[in-house]
Amino acid sequence: MLYANYEYYTGVYGGEMSEAEFKALSRKASAYIDMVTFKRARNYQGGDEVKEACCAVADELKNQENRLTSETVGSWSRQYKVDDIANSEKLYQTVSMYLACTGLLYAGGA
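and the corresponding structure tokens:
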């Protein structure tokens, strides 16, 4: 289930990636939201929090894809370590910004 479409992403959220990029990343973002909400986001009846979270997570996924891992100019070289744990934490912080007060991230029993 996709939680946000491109029209929402550009028109309401104010995102700037291309439609093709958003389609691919919003699918991953929606899957991530399903994972951290135990698929409860699918039945959420509140406001636009889930749509906003989808857009924000898609943007963060794009940022993570674009991180430079190495750079070489002549004999000079620099490498950056991309830390998967830090990336995971950043994704969770991003989704939490929108869903923390909805109860959707609660992992306890019903």
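(Above: one complete record from the training split.) Strands lie at 70-73, 76-79.
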